[in-house]
Amino acid sequence: MPHLFGQDYSKTSLLQHAGRLPQVAGVRLVTLADGLERDTRVLEFRTGTGFQFDVLVDRAMDIGRCEINGMALGWQSNTGFPGPWSFEPEGLGWLRGFGGGLLTTCGLEHTMFMAEVDVTNYGYPPYVKAEYGLHGRISYLPARLTGYGERWEGDTCTLWATGEIVQARVYGEQFVLRRSIEAVVGESRLKIHDVVENIGNAPTPHMYLYHVNVGFPVLDDGSELLVPATNPMARGSHDVSGYRTFHGPTTGYVEQVTEHDVHGEADGGVPCAIVNRRRGIGAYEVFNHKQLPHHFIWRMLGNGTYACGIEPSTNSTKGRAAEEAAGKIAILQPGETRTYDLELGALLGAGEIDRFASRVGALTS
Asked: Are strands 41-46 and 26-31 parallel, antiparallel or unpaired?
């Protein structure tokens, strides 16, 4: 039953008060019309609680703008969210269109920094070595939108969207990502269910990473990271002792990435959040460490590029070549699938923040 404006409403009662559901909540397909974002399709979700988010249909159905009561949860960069035509696959070209948003998906065959790897598994003699750029190409691929709308089940209304994103080349990887996104009217969260399938005929390496990007005003001087983790390890040589607390934007800041060992609940769920107690706002994720056993924190506290990534992953920060050499890359056989689940949402007020902090604390106490 939707809880809206301080009151519970049945389906009948809500539709007696509103001419139609979009008066209070809904999902709408629009097309952006200017600049590099021109012709990019977007699904606008509103749950009625002040929680709103954009699904970037032409960018793998990632989550762009996301806010609660007009306050942003995700970070956005100056690149905006251009369509697939902006992709530069070489080297660090991925950053040309890294608009941030609350979620950028990385993969499907490669994540992390550049690597040159053996691709003789595809059985094509001219294709022996392949060079991969930063974070793969899935986030730049458009979805075939298979449906969206609203679904009533009794007095519960769910906003939903589904789509398929194909990443394929002849004599190369052939994957499909089937993505489902749902948000319940009256709640301030969304859920993503992903199924990755090898639709080709060759065994194919698979890597996957959720680049969840939290920004101002959640991220600010005095904000803190809530995560049930131990054994923080720096990628590089930075000090990890204070990686759970944040300061304001700093000139000349160099990114810091810290990996740690996470502890999950009985079903594998790992709750993680960045909270700003002074403002009474937080952004959280819940992922399943049985699906995504690695987690790292990307701290980029510079001027303008002021963000923190809370990132579940199939693999460590060591990257494709090192993980492959160690035999830690998943190989999907033809027809094989992998499933991933992610919940993203807002924490509003001291009570919600404290309850989430208790949930995290129970896993490391």
From this structure: antiparallel
Compute CA distances 202 → 45, 128, 165, 171, 175, whole Å.
Answer: 38, 15, 19, 9, 11
Domain count, the chain: 1
Residue pair 173/200 in contact by the 8 Å Cβ criterion: yes
3-state helix, strand, coil in the chain (%, to 5): 10, 45, 40
User: What CATH number did the domain enclosing 220 receive?
Assistant: 2.70.98.10
User: How remote is the C-alpha of 306 from its chain's centroid?
Assistant: 17
Which runs of consecutive H residues, i.e. helices, occur in 224-334?
320-325
Who contacts 176 (Cβ-Cβ below 8 Å, separation ≥6)? 164, 165, 166, 167, 196, 197, 199
Identify whether 217 is preceded by a cis peptide bond (ω within 30 of 0): yes
Stretch 18-35: mean pLDDT: 95
Q: What is the mean pLDDT of residues 125-136?
A: 94
**What does the pLDDT look like over 345-365, one tens digit per residue?**
999 999 999 999 999 999 987
Quick check: 310 and 212 in contact, CB under 8 A? yes
pLDDT tens-digit profile of 309-352?
999 999 999 999 999 999 999 999 999 999 999 999 999 999 99
Give me the domain span that covers residue 134: 3-361
Q: Return the minimum-mean-pLDDT range out of 62-71, 83-92, 135-144, 214-223.
A: 83-92
